[in-house]
Design brief:
Layout (H helix, E strand, L loop, with lengths): L5 E6 L3 H12 L3 E7 L3 H10 L8 E3 L2 H6 L5 E4 L6 H10 L3 E4 L7 H14 L3 E3 L7 H10 L2 H4 L15 H6 L11 H5 L1 H11 L13
Length: 212
């Protein structure tokens, strides 16, 4: 456990940020310090709805407010993928560690910009794919690497689905190309592809085929 808890700021009031608030609170190593929205009213409501008070958590009506706060150590960025490079790079330049929601970027070039900014500012970068960073995943890796127990890996099947209702298909940011251009591939396909690469010890495929 760290002597001083990491003070988190969150950029945006997305639904997934509610779960992150709880995770930050449950961790003995972190505290929720600030929340930002383009609307001060929305940020204030978010704080209250998640069981905090304005005394505990600062509220800002701009993302810049969180990044300029010298007491914020790290930021969680659950914004649309198209905004990741802008805010992750700026956060790194402001000396904040970056926890970035998946998919980390819409393309490799933008991810490289984010990683370069974090490296130049000597801050940590982490993608918010929980299972990849969980201790049990390390245990699974150790077991899978035991050829005496599992033999040789010959094929991998990975699937992730959920029901998208009419409201989701009409209004969710993940179906809007200008906000999340990767669509289902970047959203739930992210888990499938990461699982496949993880199981194959990150050996890249020679060919990729898609059906529609």
């Amino acid at each position: 456990m760290a002597d001083t808890p990491v003070r988190f700021g969150i950029l945006g009031c997305a639904n997934i940020a509610r779960k992150m608030c709880r995770a930050i609170t449950l961790s003995p190593n972190s505290v929720l310090y600030a929340i930002a929205s383009r609307s001060l009213e929305k940020a204030s409501s978010f704080v209250l709805e998640n069981g905090f008070s304005p005394v505990e958590v600062k509220v800002y009506d701009s993302y810049e407010g969180v990044l300029e706060d010298p007491d914020v150590d790290a930021v969680y960025v659950p914004l649309p993928t198209s905004l990741h490079v802008r805010w992750a790079v700026l956060a790194a330049e402001k000396g904040k560690h970056v926890l970035l929601e998946k998919p980390a970027a819409p393309n490799l070039a933008e991810l490289d910009r984010i990683l370069e900014a974090c490296e130049c500012s000597v801050v940590q970068f982490m993608d918010a794919t929980m299972w990849m960073h969980h201790p049990r995943t390390s245990e699974m890796r150790a077991l899978l690497s035991d050829a005496q127990r599992f033999g040789q890996l010959k094929s991998i099947h990975s699937c992730f689905t959920y029901e998208a209702d009419h409201n989701f298909l009409q209004n969710n940011i993940r179906v809007k190309p200008d906000l999340d251009s990767l669509g289902a591939l970047g959203d739930i396909g992210w888990y499938c592809i990461q699982a496949i690469l993880w199981a194959a010890n990150y050996e890249l495929p020679e060919t990729v085929t898609a059906w529609r």
